[in-house]
Amino acid sequence: MSERFHLRCRECQRDFSNRPSSICPECLAPLDVKYDLDAARKTFTRENIAARPANLWRYAELLPIPDGYKSDLPVGMTPLVAAPRLGAQMGASRLYLKNDAVNFPTLSFKDRVVAMALAQAKHFGFKTVSCSSTGNLANAVAAQAARGGFDSWIFIPADLEPAKVLGTHVFGARIVRIAGNYDQVNRLCSQIAEQYRWGFVNINLRPYYSEGSKTVGYEIAEQLGWRLPDNIVVPMAGGSLITKIHKSFDELIAVGLVPEKRVKFFGAQATGCSPISRAVKLGKDEIDPQKPATIARSLAIGNPADGLYASRVIRSSGGWAEDVSDPEIVTGIETLAAAEGVFGETAAGVTVSCAKALIAQGRIAPEEETVLCITGNGLKTTDALAGRMVLEAPLEPRMAAFEKFMGTALAVSAAS
Ligand SMILES: *Cc1c(COP(=O)(O)O)cnc(C)c1O
Ligand SMILES: [Zn+2]
């Protein structure tokens, strides 16, 4: 294994050379990317990193970037902001938001994973890239494929939000709508991946793809001044993001960039699709697949590929998992927007409302430092807020009309 990184089986620990495959041929467990941490330590220093451009490529030593690969896409380094008003409402005094709703180029954390997958797609010589998607991945693959000169084939459940379909179509991607849920779409894609020489970012390129999620963790640590928070709340679909943030913190401790610390991991799901939170609440790691029924479509994976590992990370960290109803998701979106001026998608509503419940239960201590991962943008899921805004009749463009309107409006707000 002379390369800077290679693949290693998560269960049997066998090593494999880099290849477009996500499953150990010996034991069928997932493959992960493994780095030579001793080599990385020499150049992966706070000073070196600080001197590099403010995007996720600055963490190159611990990312699966092929030798000589250069990207000019400034993905990542999204804001980490204090959320004092939201914190006061929820009873937590040191709350932060990691805001991937403004990630470049397609406004979700999926831009990070796709940046890694397409670097490898180029390296392996794929001309066509593809994915099964709950929406945000479709947007990110379509956009970055357009810029990278790939053809893209995007497989989605037919009932996705119109903005997510449009935000895929506009980049010239071939969209394949499937009459079925995500798990059925994903199964079909696994079969296609065996027949066609395509780079499926979340199937045969999954080990590389998922490494992109680590950059959320690297950035949080760097933005806190190279230290780790006490708690982190992460929305879960396939369960990859939460396990990879955990891996990122372990790696930062291993290379000596942050002091050792046990961070508690909290997973957030919608009750209508909660296979991981259910396993955690039952005190086990095995996942019972569910049939999703929730407005949080980006999280609607009933048979999560990394569910077992997500449950392990949560339970061994001393954290917990929670799930919330669709009305609570809407309230979460509105509370976040009104308190902090951040418009997150349904997954953000899940995260905010689960955090509120976890604080109320005493599982997240009020005075501890807690980061909420806001992973996608509210402008893509406006359907979730349908009926929440009633437009007033338009006014004549006259002062008298306005003053009459203002009088009524003030009377209404005084009465309520
Ligand atoms: C995909 C997605 C997630 C969850 O990602 P996993 O790694 O599959 O758990 C969270 N939030 C948003 C907005 C997503 O699109
Ligand atoms: Zn194995």
Give a short summary of the structure.
The protein has helices at 37-43, 46-50, 84-90, 110-123, 136-148, 162-169, 182-195, 206-211, 214-223, 240-254, 275-281, 307-317, 326-340, 346-360, 399-415, and strands spanning 5-9, 15-16, 31-35, 80-82, 94-99, 128-132, 151-157, 174-178, 199-200, 231-235, 264-270, 320-324, 369-374.
Task: Spell out the blueprint of helices and strands.
Blueprint: E1 5-9, E2 15-16, E3 31-35, H1 37-43, H2 46-50, E4 80-82, H3 84-90, E5 94-99, H4 110-123, E6 128-132, H5 136-148, E7 151-157, H6 162-169, E8 174-178, H7 182-195, E9 199-200, H8 206-211, H9 214-223, E10 231-235, H10 240-254, E11 264-270, H11 275-281, H12 307-317, E12 320-324, H13 326-340, H14 346-360, E13 369-374, H15 399-415
Parallel strand pairs: 5-13, 6-7, 6-9, 7-8, 10-11, 10-13, 11-12
Antiparallel strand pairs: 1-2, 1-3, 4-5
Helix pairs in contact: 3-13, 4-5, 5-6, 9-10, 10-12, 11-12, 13-14
Pyridoxal-5'-phosphate binds at residues 108, 110, 136, 235-241, 298-299, 345, 347, 375-376.
